[in-house]
## 1
Amino acid sequence: MAKLLFINPVVREEDVPRHVPYGIALLAAIAIDKGHLVQVYDANAWRLGEETLREVLKADAWQVIALGGITTAYGSIKETVRIARQECPDAVIMLGGGVLTSLPHEIMNWLPEVDVGCVGEGFITFPEMLAMVDAESRDWHRIAGTISRNAQGKPVLSPQRTLLEDLDTLPYPAWDLFPREEVYFKNSQMLYSPEGMLAQRRLDINVSYGCSMICRYCYHLGIAGDMRYETSESGEVSVSFDRPGAYTRTIRYHSPEYIVRMVRHMRDKYAIDYVLFLDENLMTMDQHSKRLWMKDICRLWHESGLAPIPSYDAAGIMNGWEGVHWSGTSHATLCTKEILKTMRAAGCSHLVYGYESFAPHVLKTVGKGSTPATNERSFFWTLEAGIRPVPNVIIGFPDEDFQSIRDNMAAFDRLGIQVRPHFATAYPGSEWFTLHRDSLEAQYGGNLESYILDLGDATKITGIICKKFNAVELIGLRELMCEGNYRLLDVFESAWKRVHQERPLV
């Protein structure tokens, strides 16, 4: 039995903390079920700085300090493990999540304080790691799905861990360990729909793992069957992900019964009024289940008394509801009119669409399978169903050009929407990171860690993968798109062509 401290690192410091860390909450529940003594310090929720972190680390004789997160939390993780090793020299420091899985050898080399890492899915691996803490010999390599150090201190991967087949065997996340009332419920509101703006007690869920798409900018965290272990001629084992012509996908999801039982539990215990599905792509699951999964979720939502019943003020404006509204992600080519209407009747308020671009030649390179026509069709279908579509657009793709900028601006005009595009960002684990890694490193003086430290949520510009435009040009082009300023776009294109006729891009 281990005395375990989870630390949720700080992420997205430019915004308030909005989401209980689902992965940590789930692993905490698994650890508790195994009999371990578990505490959580949610540094992202409290944001109290180094002094408080040191006080937490000194508060008990922790045997294990466990962290995890996405790549953009790397800066916080790096600082946290440094302080943790100072304050808890005898504790086992464990790291997991996408930040490690995407670059296991590099992260272990950059973070010498980490004793062992969990590569890929941790549902089975993590409890086995905890069980070895009290062993006479901590031979981490005997546990599949880990990375640890050999006698010379060199990171070594153990054999690959297979994915959990039956997700319904998982416990509910340990929401009780996180500051719901003090932090997360106070930040329940989302500006995507009237219901989202009125939400007072929102919690998030993740009910599927995987996606059928091969989007070249996307990384599936090692939980979608896209991770491969490869052995070099020298015998060294490494991890690789999507690359041209080599795609694999494993689609897994909770049963509708499990999902609705969990939400009913959340409603009864925490009086939630809103649920956000964190899933990568809800419509993949619906298509994969032969169009039964989402329909059954909606049916059970009604049967369990979760379908929201609105209340109105004297002026006839909705001011609340009894039940649980919800939202999540959709896909332009996979949604149907029928399922959208069914979802709305069960309380769906908004759906995020990764349209990425409305330029045909750009979309062909993304790997999403969508076209400008399917993007626009899904937008209007969703509106007609009474659900707010939330369009996501990206610029700075490798084949971005003036025509694609104009195609996007024209689509914004046709749809009557205001969009502030994200910048194409090659996150570790994605196909485009693999293809452009040398260039990205060169942009950061040959220091890959500097690039990782600079990564954010793609609202700011970092490494460039665009063939035609540099960082300054992409920032300016985004402003012109937001303004719908065709005149200055024409002026800039003329100037750009004059310069690059004399100095063509290589």
## 2
Amino acid sequence: MAENHPVGYQWVMEARERGAKIIHVDPRYTRTSATADIWVPFRAGTDILFLGGIVNYAITHNKIFRDYVVNYTNAPVILREDMLDPEVNEGVWSGWDEAAKKYDPETWLYEGSGSKKDAGGQTPGHQDAGGGHGKDRGGEAANEQQYHSDLTLEHPRCVYQVMKRHFARYTPEFIEEHAGVPKEQFLKVAETFCNASGPNKTAAICYAVGFTQHSKGVQIIRTAAILQLLLGNIGRPGGGILALRGHASIQGSTDIPTLYDILPGYLPMPFYEQGANDYKSYLKKHTSSAGVWSNFGKFSTSLLKAWYGDAATKENDYCFDLLPRVTGDHSHFGYWLDMQDGKVEGLFIMGQNPAVGASNSGLQRTAMSKLKWLGRRPRGEQRQVKVREKAEQPA
């Protein structure tokens, strides 16, 4: 953060001058490490273990902000009887489809919610499949929606107890063995961070691509979110989980957006689905019953009206049919894997070198060797074109 986000880091330094503690967890020693109260080098790729260890510490040492957890999270809500966790289900959660290599989240729903599958046997989008987006909380919200909950957090199938069993494996000894962080140092970090909790204190987690650019990056950030919710550090001043993003690259790709699976405003691209390609089905899949995404229809309609103007009317679904459909994995590595499998015949490369420019350059080199043709415009040629065009402009 000190190196790549110096303007934001000045506030971290001011907080330190007022008594805040800075903990830097990074295999490398950087300028951030030099200004931190605690620097924790650990083995790359063990982020979930380290965060899981702090989750386990917060639970076992009674460091959670209990009033917050009971009233503002889904921790008290009881899960269905057919939900099985990995401890009793041979290492996987219930709903695993070995043939399809993916989970059916039906059994993960709350007790009292009933089946979420539609008439065609399909499970709806993640907004309605369980918690999240401001709905399905514990406490009063759970009772209002007729979900069964235990405000004492003692029921063996409440979310809190399931989570407690899951994270029990992440002991300080386990962290030392697998993450390479000495037990004494880990305990110092866990105690320091967990003490910034409760009615009068908060703590923030700042992360960058060291979190996101793992194959399990989503799960790393999810673990950080679990920790912050247990400590009551979400939605409160000085708390949160802050992504330090590159505004001209990562942030820009989601805001413009250039990613294949989202529209501006983080609206999902419509996927081609047999018998469900109309606007009504799209809205049903992505609209939640409460929270910001309860306005999903307004967001998407506004975007379509902005693009198609007066031609977008209610009668023609605001020209929704004009949007292209996603038919598969069109992500960066998705098309390199297709290239490796011989599904891509040719490639144009402009202003980059995939042979050295990604996290698996060996794969990309072998994939390019499978191509029938390759078109590349060298950077030198680009510069020559710009110089020539400039010279031909009138004075």
## 3
Amino acid sequence: MRILLAEDERDLNRIIAKKLTADGYSVDCCFDGAEALDYAASADYDVMVLDIMMPKLDGLAVLRTLRQRGDATPVLLLTARDAVPDRVKGLDSGANDYLVKPFSLEELAARLRALTRTRYGQASAALTVADLTLDSASHTVTRGGRPITLSAKEFQLLEYLMHNQGRVLSREQIENHIWNFDYEGGTNVVDVYISYLRKKIDGGQAVKLIHTVRSRGYVLKEGDPST
């Protein structure tokens, strides 16, 4: 999914972004609180990771502003402070989770997956539509028990479609959610990746799961997309 990472320690920012990108996330990186608010107002994120000690605006000020705006995006706070009052203050300000530095990148990834599941009302790491299953923890996809190999971007797109199963997503929604601000590709990128997915997911299958809804976009569901 798409993540906003606000961390002013540039080396740590780079390391986290590299890990999350390798896990298939689209990551927008910034280095101060004012920039974080600008990014948050410009895109739809699944999760935001905010360092507490940042220049211009600290993470708590950013968090309070987001909540005052009515932005309910899950937020994970990063901090070097591990005192209980500090953690309580962060959670009471509207944070969904809290991670103390230094931390394991694998733990951070697991916590972000958990926050994403919470946002979409998902009980486990596995998403299922008909005989198609995607497991975000093991990063595997199967259909009818047959393993399907996807690129990181294909996996991300399929996960987004499955999180929104039965809901028609416009090309603009998909592009804004799957590709970050650094993307400089072609205007038909969504159509291209939907085509890739169809070949791998629906190729040779009697029941098609990925449907085009004319003039509206794409939907993943079992059966007629108009119903």
## 4
Amino acid sequence: MNLPLGDPAYQQLGALERAGCVPARVSATRPYDLRSIRLAIAAGAGDPRCRGSLLDVLQRRFAPSAADMARRLRLGGSVTAQGTALKGGDFLPLWNDVRPKGEGDPPLVVTGHARGSYGNGDVVEAVFDGYVESNSRNDPQVRARQFRRSTAVIDAGEAYVAVRGLGITLSLGREREAWLGDSTESMWLGANGPPLDRLAASFRSRHFEGHFLFGVVDDVVLTPAQDSIQSEFGPQRFYRFIAAHMLTWRPSRMVEWSVGETALLSRGAGVVDFYYINPFVPYVVVQNDTGRTGDDARDNLTAFTGIRLHPGRVTLGGELLIDDIQIDAADRRTTPDQLGWRFTATAPAPIKWPATVALTYERINSYTYMRRFYNEVYQYYNEPLGSVLGPDADYAHADADLFVTPTVRIAAGLGSWRRGVRRIYERPAVAAVGHANESFPTSFPDEPAETALLGDVSAQLLSVVCPVTLRVDAARITNVNNTASAPALYARVQLLATYAFRYP
């Protein structure tokens, strides 16, 4: 069974890894499965860099019992209240425009989850997690229609069956996926949007870890008014799919190297393209197979690589996304490279409590994720399938966190953010061809680049039964929404409190 994203254990395991506890690196992808978490905790017990109160709490929580290995039905639920106060408007998530208060997070949202699972936890598991949310406005993870004429939604956040045998795990159903990156953030497959309905497979060995996914994303209807297509054809519906595979190599505890690809497929009929279900053939080879003809033979492909190094207690990371790169000199004069990259460095603070500091720089080039028509853009329900920044933006920031106790975390961050005029949800979509000489971020005389100083501070009670988070985000933004304007202050205060009964 997978541990839902947002569970307190992710923060605790992340803190251990940032402090130099290499075994706490459970996987290159998230969500983590319980078996892998237990293996990581067991490995950490033998590493002196891992020992301490954080590891003790995780050992007690995830200690296997006889009940875990017995086939059983487990039921649970949770209720979460989220209160939000805004000043000036809502500037989060970062891929979106700054919006007035009436379009941002509502003042109060109540969400109830009901979760059931059946299996033995290690060989087979079936999970269903349904939820009711009182107001879905500005929630990027919602994919359901509003309930009748209300602001509420009823949907399934997770619904899957997972089977493990011969060292391979197969999973069919709905789940959120984040590959590389941190938390829900990733440049190529992030969990910032709604969960995916997908077929997934993975394996783990001492030195290798592999993942494959083939999923369904939302349909897109192109219209003459929105997308500048020829009016005589009228609206055109496209059925879209996402495929991804990744291989991670760990030759030693010092090094982790990942490589992989994604493919966004757009078809005029809802027929699964079985060419992309084979996880052993590179997608660039599949795309150029002579057995595939017509416009459907050109799909939105990306390649990526990431490396993590652990010299001592310091963790260094670098990631590169290649959406499109120009090799010929003639192409470089007309078309810019469509890349994304991310660098991180983390280290423990020299104090008696568990504390770490991190430096991060992420950049997404101006036309990364973009294509000529919107059905080919790397988006899902008008939100990024990749980075939370969207295209045409960069963000440099410093972050620090402190665990006063194993369940009380205080964190703060400060950074500089820039964004040009390109948006992931822009219609008609804009291709990179013909924009080679534009500056980064993209700006025009009447549309200057948007810049901001961003800061946040948060306090969390990482309780399994009653987790509580208080977070304050602030932004001093110049040229809001790429309109020439003086610096303006925006702020958001959010309090989340949950009561969970046998959840997850």
